[in-house]
UniProtKB/TrEMBL annotation:
Name the UniProt record assigns to this protein: Riboflavin biosynthesis protein RibD
Function recorded in the entry: Converts 2,5-diamino-6-(ribosylamino)-4(3h)-pyrimidinone 5'-phosphate into 5-amino-6-(ribosylamino)-2,4(1h,3h)-pyrimidinedione 5'-phosphate.
Domain of life: Bacteria
Recorded GO MF terms: 5-amino-6-(5-phosphoribosylamino)uracil reductase activity; diaminohydroxyphosphoribosylaminopyrimidine deaminase activity; NADP binding
Listed EC numbers: 1.1.1.193, 3.5.4.26
Organism, scientific name: Mameliella alba
Length: 308
């Protein structure tokens, strides 16, 4: 797009320019052909099709290459990309909006709204920073959510992912009604009825068959299926059973916890389902990254412990 202005210019990129043919030709070739004189990049691309080859091509064609600038920030920004390359699955952020006693709904199921408008706006911003927003079938039935980014103007919407072994989500839901406008993927098990699969495909949803383990969808296999579709960051908004399944299998990379100053008591719905923890050293552990206010609520950010 720069045309002649690219001659002798410096290009600042957030990752090593690619060196392989995919949906587009190699970026390193395009940069050299454009007459770029210098490329500044923080880190190499760990994809084996690149991994130093992009830098090598640029140097061979007379382009000066500077690396290491902003490397720590780039590693954080690209964490999902690198995780998908290394483990075949996307980065998982688990969001919990709870009372001070860890409840997400009253005993009757009322949950809107536990947190205030500032916290809800922060959640929409988090949705926008991920490739997909994911919920379990129980949350899809109880809340009838849209799972879209709202309040930030006209923008790309993340994929909506519903994890439902039997695809037991109402076909009259907001998700179904908007499936042709905003991508909707259903992760299901082999027992899902063929007529339900046909009906959901008919409204525009995409079906992703997943393996079953212990009577539930295997969370690692499900995430790898999402990774194979190119997703690098998934924002999970519950409910409790899906959250517990991800935590039990050590698949939560980051926690975004919004805590409201109210209590609902033991009869309320817990934010996380049963984990079967008998001893403290069996519990999933995270390191605190940040604590900030979100209106009348508190937002905690936690990351997976490196030792884990």
């Amino acid at each position: 797009m720069a045309g002649a202005a690219a001659q002798g210019a410096t290009a600042y990129v957030t990752l090593e320019p690619c060196a392989h043919h995919g949906a587009t030709p190699p970026c390193c070739e395009a940069l050299a052909k454009a007459g770029i004189a210098r490329v500044v990049a923080p880190i190499a691309d760990s994809d084996p099709r690149v991994d130093g080859q992009g830098f090598g091509y640029l140097r061979q064609h007379g382009v000066e290459v500077t690396t290491g600038v902003g490397a720590e920030q780039a590693l954080s920004d690209h964490a999902g990309f690198f995780l998908r390359i290394a483990q075949g699955r996307p980065w998982v952020t688990l969001k919990l909006a709870m009372t001070v006693d860890g409840r997400i709904a009253t005993a009757t199921g009322e949950s809107q709204w536990i947190t205030g408008p500032e916290a809800r706006r922060a959640v929409h911003a988090l949705r926008a920073s991920h490739d997909a927003v994911m919920v379990g079938a129980g949350t899809a039935r109880a809340d009838d959510p849209q799972l879209t980014v709202r309040g930030f103007g006209d923008r790309r919407q993340p994929v909506r992912v519903v994890v439902s072994r039997l695809i037991d989500v109402p076909l009259m839901s907001q998700l179904a009604q908007s499936a042709r406008d905003v991508p909707l993927w259903l992760c299901h098990g082999p027992e899902a009825r063929s007529e339900l699969k046909t009906a959901w495909e008919g409204v525009g949803a995409r079906l992703l068959p997943c393996q079953i383990s212990g009577g539930r969808i295997d969370p690692l296999a499900m995430l790898r299926a999402l990774g194979s579709e190119g997703l690098t960051r998934v924002f999970c908004e519950g409910g409790g059973q899906l959250a517990a399944s991800l935590l039990l299998h050590d698949l939560v990379d980051e926690l975004q916890v919004f805590t409201a100053g109210m209590a609902l008591g033991a009869e309320g719905y817990p934010g996380i389902g049963a984990l079967g923890v008998a001893r403290l050293d069996e519990a999933p552990r995270f390191d605190l990254v940040d604590v900030v206010g979100a209106g009348a609520d508190i937002r905690h950010v936690w990351r997976r412990r490196q030792s884990a």
